[in-house]
Amino acid sequence: MRAVEPSHPDAPRSDVVIVGAGVIGLATAWRLRERGLSVSIVDPDPGGAASRAAAGMIAPASEVQYQQHALYPLMRKAASNYPDFVAGVQAASGHDVGYRRTETLVCAGTPADRQGLAELREHQNAHGMEVDALTVREARALEPALSPRLAGAFRAVGDHQVDPRRLVAGLIAALSSREHRAHATLVTQAAVRLCDDGGGVELADGSRIAARHTILATGLGSDLFAGLPASPAAVLRPVHGDILRARLPDGAAPLLERTIRGVVNGVPVYLVPRADGEIVIGATSREDDLAGASAGGVYRLLRDAQTLVPAVCDLELVEVMARARPGTPDDVPLLGRLRDGDGAEAPGLILATGGFRHGVLLAPLLADAAAALVTGDSRGPDLTGVLRTTDPYRFHPTD
Ligand SMILES: Cc1cc2nc3c(=O)[nH]c(=O)nc-3n(C[C@H](O)[C@H](O)[C@H](O)COP(=O)(O)OP(=O)(O)OC[C@H]3O[C@@H](n4cnc5c(N)ncnc54)[C@H](O)[C@@H]3O)c2cc1C
Question: Domains, the chain, ranges and CATH?
Answer without folding.
Answer: 2-53+165-235+331-389 (3.50.50.60), 104-157+237-326 (3.30.9.10)
